[in-house]
Amino acid sequence: MSAPVKLFSKCAKLNYRHCSLRHHAQRLPFSRSFCTRHQTTATMSTAANPQLLTQQVAAMNADPLFTPHAVCRTVENDPNKHTENHLGLFFTVAEEDMKKLFGFGGLEKHLRTQMATFTESCIMVRPPALEVINYLRKADYEKPAIRYVLYGRKGVGRTVSLAHILYWCSLQGWLLLHVPDPTKFTVKIEEMQPSIFKPGQVDLPLTAAEWLKRFRTQNALFLEENEFTASRKYVWSKRESSESGSPIISIIDYGINRVKYAADCVNVVIREVKLQSQNFSKPVIVVVDGGNQFFCETTIKREDKTLLPPDDVSLVHNLKKLFHSDWKNGAVVVSVDERNAYNMQKSSYLPRYLLQKEGFELFDPFVPILVDNYTEKEASSCLDYYIDRMWIQNAKARTESGKKELMYLTGFNPRELQLISNAI
Question: What does DSSP assign to residue 340?
Fold first, then answer.
């Protein structure tokens, strides 16, 4: 019998995505798909020799430190079929869906890096996302749009919960209006210019063009299947205009190609969505990650050195119209994040504080959804997933006592658990 396979070093994790052994491991009568890499020899010999790989698997199973762990995955990858029985389990999102939904942002850099390293995109089924999905499924869309606000402490997983909800809405064929990073509209400014049609406001042409590209990509199928046209004529310049009845997709393409008018094209899209939402065969979902940023000060300075109010940024002014309850056949799901509370004392994570008076009164009434730290079951499942992906290499950390120590060291916080796992 060959010697047990050594766990690969930390530097080998960077090459993890190139490993081909996992394709053979999936065929073996072994409950875990895995990937191993010799420290001094290449993996091509085992990839070309399944019998040798079988012997290595047997050797690893014989290792007392390499004990089977609890199930951390579900084979049910359709979020529409998830129930409370799937809580704490990971499901896989297809690569084409990840590119369509999050190709222009929507997941934080550390999550994108982790998914690329693991060569798969998995999301844990958690109560906040499951609760919102159940509400969306049972809501009456003949009534004004219902607002849902996700809140919680730092690192608890609001962004991932929003990604889960967005994925469910996409599979149902809903029209998606997604704003993954509002700080690009108020703080991280790339380029700005005076508004052409609204004196006193400023346009963010590059940011607006990026939003139009995201809208077009995420809703390509919806725009093909639904007759979504302009309700009136829009004049861009003395020579250029979009006639009444023009497909909205042509206005989107115009804004992408003529970046100067991108912000005004975003305004047209939002206006037409609100006007025609009742005629759509599927509802509209508005998803904003860190929506309280729309009610905080900007970093844009006027000529007199005073800060520009957020409503004087045309994109912010228009996107905030979606938060009102004056339209139907839609829903609004927003998270609030104390990291986005620019120029505010970060003393609370509650919606009343982060949305401030203006935002709270605008959203009221809304459905508050608390996103909390992991439960013990969720934390254990997360660590089992890291072990499954060979991310945790320390032998003691793979034991039950080691996993419990990691849970309590991080206070069951998802982000802290991820950070501490990077070093072991």
Answer: G
Residues contacting residue 159 through CB under 8 Å, at least 6 positions apart: 106, 107, 108, 111, 289, 335
Longest Cα–Cα distance in the chain: 81
Query: pLDDT above 70 covers what percent of the chain?
Result: 82
Beta-carbon contacts of 361 under 8 Å, excluding residues fewer than 6 positions away, are: none
Exposure string of 254-283, with b = 16+ CB inside 10 Å and e = fewer, is: bbbebbebbbbbbbbbbbbbbebbeebebb
Each residue's pLDDT tens digit, 215-265:
999 999 999 888 899 999 999 988 899 999 999 999 999 999 999 999 999
C-alpha to C-alpha distance for 261 and 198, rounded to whole angstroms:
12
Question: In this structure, what token pair is assigned to residue 96?
Answer: 């084409």
pLDDT digits (tens, 9 = 90+) for 18-31: 333 333 333 223 33
The angle that helices 158-171 and 95-102 make with each other, rounded to 10 degrees, is 110
Q: DSSP letters along 261-293, please?
A: GHHHHHHHHHHHHHHHGGGSSS-EEEEEETGGG
3 SS3 class: coil
Q: For residue 137, what are the CA distances in angstroms to 54, 114, 140, 259? A: 46, 31, 9, 37
Give phi and psi for 178, each to the nearest 5: -115, 130
Q: Exposed, middle or buried, 203 (CB in 10 Å: 0-12/13-18/19+)?
A: buried
Tally of CA atoms within 13 A in the half-sphere of 361 that contains its CB: 3
* pTM for the model: 0.82
Contact 102, 194 (CB under 8 A): no
- Rounded Cα–Cα distance for residues 379 and 406 (Å): 9
The set of residues, in sequence order, having a beta carbon less than 8 Å from that of 327 and lying 6+ positions away, is: 144, 145, 274, 277, 278
363's CB contacts (< 8 A; 6+ apart) are 147, 149, 323, 334, 351, 355
The residue type found at 179 is: V
Q: What are the angstrom distances between the C-alpha of 301 and each of 202, 309, 313?
A: 11, 9, 12
Report strand pairing: 367-370 vs 146-151. parallel
289's tokens: 């990650």
Per DSSP, 207 falls in state H
Strand partners, 335: 150, 289
Helices (H), 344-399: 351-354, 356-363, 376-388
Residue 366 to residue 199: CA distance in whole angstroms: 33
